[in-house]
């Protein structure tokens, strides 16, 4: 028995199965029968006539019979019932000499893939699991692959997983993005469907500077960078009436005192907060000292000697503090001596630390015979050299400006020159 011929036809379309007959002259044709498996479809007669098509096949089948050489079985609409997995079409030729010949045709019913449909939860929290299902049909059954990114895009990172189910057991925020399901069975063009996976995670501050050193009455902008999905909201406190407090930055137009500010970020999944300290200071720190052990009432007072002695004592007081470079006397007021100092440092320095160092020096006797009743930051107009905002990591560039008030220095030179 010969192997059956295989004829491929699209599902839902018409098809014609052909058998060509050739009998030798010593054979007389008795009948031609067309079968599907063991079920007869129609019986054909030698004179070109035929019986009725069997009821089970009548709706979709008809036959063209041109004896003695050609039989055409016409299927108006091929269905999966005709497929080779379900059976075989046969043409059986019978002769008067009781000879039978059978030729078989198998129909392979094919269909291009349908557009995939994707099911599954498309929003998932970080740390959870993700499972997406891609359903597509076709004949033969399609192969299904999952890729990251849209089909044809340069951002596509290639096949992530084969099979109808995409599984990511532990989802990270990096899994947010487009996943594309592609189905193909070799019939027609591949079909794809894309879905966006949204990975959510709590708000968290990822970049924050916790300390700023700023000149008195200068401005500073605090920064707070956070991640989160949904995007986090920002809240700064304390926050003044005219300040914008719901952005990732907080602008302080005039720094008048040391202060602490807190940035809080939040979304539906969680919150985070960090605090930053803003200190008055810089490369030049202006200090006012009231020295009660000295009285400056007339021109006989040796101010030059006083300033020289105080310079040496300050040098000793800051000997253990790296970066101290020197002092400039800005003003000396008569009576119980009140002196305004501009202390210069290589690095941005907090005013409070300078005051602490001077108080410690006073307590330890490093200010000699001077009795000091007050050490505080100078709060009238003084010149400084530090930048408006000076990060403590030293990354800012210090401006080259005069670090003392020339009018006071000229006055001091004039006074000293008289003694």
UniProtKB/TrEMBL annotation:
Recorded protein name is IgLON family member 5
Cited InterPro entries: Ig-like_dom, Ig-like_dom_sf, Ig-like_fold, Ig_sub, Ig_sub2
Q: Which Gene3D superfamilies match?
A: Immunoglobulins
Could you tell me which residue ranges the Ig-like domain spans?
Answer: 112-200, 202-279
